[in-house]
């Protein structure tokens, strides 16, 4: 990817993360005014003295950032799939391509800045440049295979932040449970053993503590589910791009 495209993607990701965090804050404010009882203890936990600076609220903000990352990746996969429908190369059964015929296709795939970083356009332009310089179908095919491996690794790198978010949410949940248990034990330390409300207070606070882990696991499970769907779309777009180049470019190249 070019320096410009990397900076542009970083800027979009930062903006999306900010939108996701603010959306989570808006959701928390809605919960604050609408929830009560068990739903309140499960989702926001106003029992902590530090509210609204609680572990559950931090989890919601991280959750919003995770969905922002998913939106970025979904938008990218949608663009990759749309590029496959543009018919950049001949798709009939008769056309053969010589080196001097490839200039028009190179200009076609590089004229639109929005698609220059897509898998298909990069594969086509790389193979064309390789064949024009070497006049070798074998070398062009080898470059195609090497590029597909690199792009597969590139897809994997794009999900590093999401994988971290999926890991950190359950970690925050366990941390919240430990803090909740500690607060529950501390809160009953000054109560008399024969106090009838002792068991009720203890179970209520412990229930809230364990709700934090439950909420974290649900959040993580939802993010993992959608992450696999979106990543599968990107990987499928890469596979289809490779097949398209193999069928309509590599197999048509004519050495003289």
How would you portray this structure in words?
By secondary structure, this protein is mainly α. 75% of the residues lie in helices and 0% in strands. Helix 5 runs parallel beside helix 8.
Topology:
Layout (H helix, E strand, L loop, with lengths): L2 H32 L2 H7 L11 H29 L19 H8 L8 H16 L2 H22 L1 H28 L10 H51 L8
Provide key terms for this protein.
256 residues, mainly alpha, 8 helices, 75% helix
Shape: rod-shaped
Unreliable residue stretches = none
**What is the element string, with H for helices and E for strands?**
HHHHHHHH
Main pleated sheet: none
Quick overview:
The protein is an all-alpha fold and 256 residues long. The protein has helices at residues 3-34, 37-43, 55-83, 103-110, 119-134, 137-158, 160-187, 198-248.
């Amino acid at each position: 990817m070019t320096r410009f495209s990397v900076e542009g993607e970083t800027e979009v990701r930062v903006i999306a993360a900010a939108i996701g965090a603010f959306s989570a804050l808006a959701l928390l404010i809605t919960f604050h005014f609408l929830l009560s009882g068990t739903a309140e203890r499960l989702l926001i936990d106003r029992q902590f003295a530090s509210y609204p600076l609680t572990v559950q609220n931090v989890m919601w903000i991280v959750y919003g950032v995770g969905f922002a990352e998913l939106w970025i990746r979904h938008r990218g996969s949608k663009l990759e799939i749309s590029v496959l429908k543009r018919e950049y190369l001949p798709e009939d059964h008769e056309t053969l391509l010589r080196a001097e015929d490839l200039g028009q296709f190179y200009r076609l795939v590089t004229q639109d800045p929005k698609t220059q970083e897509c898998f298909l356009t990069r594969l086509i332009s790389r193979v064309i440049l390789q064949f024009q310089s070497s006049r070798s179908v074998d070398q062009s095919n080898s470059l195609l295979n090497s590029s597909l491996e690199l792009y597969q690794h590139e897809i994997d790198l794009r999900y590093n932040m999401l994988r971290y978010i999926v890991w950190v949410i359950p970690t925050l949940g366990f941390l919240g449970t430990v803090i909740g248990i500690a607060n529950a034990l501390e809160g009953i330390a000054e109560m008399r053993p024969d106090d009838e409300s002792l068991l009720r207070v203890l179970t209520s606070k412990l229930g809230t503590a364990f709700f934090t882990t439950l909420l974290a696991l649900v959040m993580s499970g939802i993010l993992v589910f959608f992450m696999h769907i979106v990543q599968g779309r990107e990987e499928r777009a890469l596979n289809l791009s490779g097949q398209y180049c193999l069928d309509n470019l590599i197999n048509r190249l004519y050495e003289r």
